[in-house]
Each structure stands twice: as structure tokens, then as C-alpha cells.
Design a protein that fits this description.
- The complex is a heterodimer of chains A (111) and B (114).
- Chain A has 111 residues and is an all-beta fold.
- Helices cover 0% and strands 52% of the residues of chain A.
- In chain A, the strands form two sheets. In chain A, strands 2, 4, 5, 9, 10 and 11 form a six-stranded mixed beta sheet that branches. Chain A has a five-stranded antiparallel beta sheet with strand order 1-3-8-7-6, with no helix packed on it.
- Chain A is globular, with a radius of gyration of 13 Å.
- The termini of chain A are far apart.
- Classes of the chains: A mainly beta (111), B mainly beta (114).
Amino acid sequence: GQQLNQSPQSMFIQEGEDVSMNCTSSSIFNTWLWYKQDPGEGPVLLIALYKAGELTSNGRLTAQFGITRKDSFLNISASIPSDVGIYFCAGSSGGNEKLTFGTGTRLTIIP
Amino acid sequence: GAVVSQHPSRVICKSGTSVKIECRSLDFQATTMFWYRQFPKQSLMLMATSNEGSKATYEQGVEKDKFLINHASLTLSTLTVTSAHPEDSSFYICSASGGSRVAFFGQGTRLTVV
């Protein structure tokens, strides 16, 4: 099935650093979602974006819905150990439409 | 956020047997539920979409006779892996949507077929 292009694929950072990842699509979406998945668990919703150009924050996380509706980015400021995990973007055409997932960004914090 | 409960979290079964996985929305009515499969270090791949009271819509390449999906109520959907084989071993995840444009995920089920 279709997947969104998500980059980077993996990141190795030190605690306290800021993180940025993004997703691009060849299709237009009406909703962009960002999830975090820990090993052996289901994805947990971090941020939901509903309008082109929208910038939304959730604590140290900030995400934006691209103006073209074909991309989105997620920033994490001042990373902490519990930020370790895999981050997925997902796009939807709205309502109960199915989600198309990004390929994931694995975040590792090095001591 | 809304709570979606998936059960069991882990299951080991013998080759040739069938396994049923349950997905429940605990605090909202899920008009649509989705079933995903995830291989190690890979993203989630949608298997099927189920709407309450109607037949599931399967993605291309997913065998509907092998992965039986039932969505009999607004809070429960089940995925039955029939005649399981080792290649069916995977992490299966459900998600539920109540029409809010946001889907919430269950905890996932690790299936191992021996």
C-alpha cells in the first residue's frame, strides 16, 4: 500500500538537543497526525492537525500542517530520555477515512 | 485521548489453528475500525477497514478468507486469523475512529505461530 516519505529514517542525538522530522506526500491530505510508538506497543497520538498552515504544540512538541497539504513536520525541543521511540506521521482524507502512514523515524538518545 | 483496548497482547498458537483478536473502544462509539499488520522495524500496513454492521473492506493483497473481520457492534471488532501458519506471525494492531478525524490505537497483539 501507499506510504508517506518520512525523514530522517533514524536519529541519534544527545539529551537536551532539539529534533526535527518531516513527512511528504504526493497526495493531498485533510488531516495530518503524528504518533509515537514504543516497542511492543500500539502508536500513541501526539498531535493532530486539521488545517493547512496550522501550527500546533503539545508541551515540547510542535507540528505544522504544510500549506500545500502535502507535508508536515514535527519538532521536539530539549529532548529527554523518554522521547526515545519511533515516530510516525499519518495522513487522512478526513472523517473515518483510513490513515496512510509514514515510514517512521527512530529516535535514539546517546549518553 | 480515547481508549482502545486490544486483547490478547500476546498469543502463541500451533500451525493450522485459528486465533481471534479483539479490539474494543472503551469510552466512545467506533463507527469504523481498522486492522494493521506491522513487521519488525517497519511501518504499519493497513489490512482492512470495518464499519459497524457491514462487511469489511480489505486492502489489495490481503486474503479476506484468511483474515476474518467482524464488527458487530459500535464498540467491538474482531480479527480471526484462520489456519495460521508461521508466516502469519506478526504484530497486529487495531485502531478505532468515531468520526472525529482521529484514530486511536490498541496496544497491539504479538502473534507467534509455531
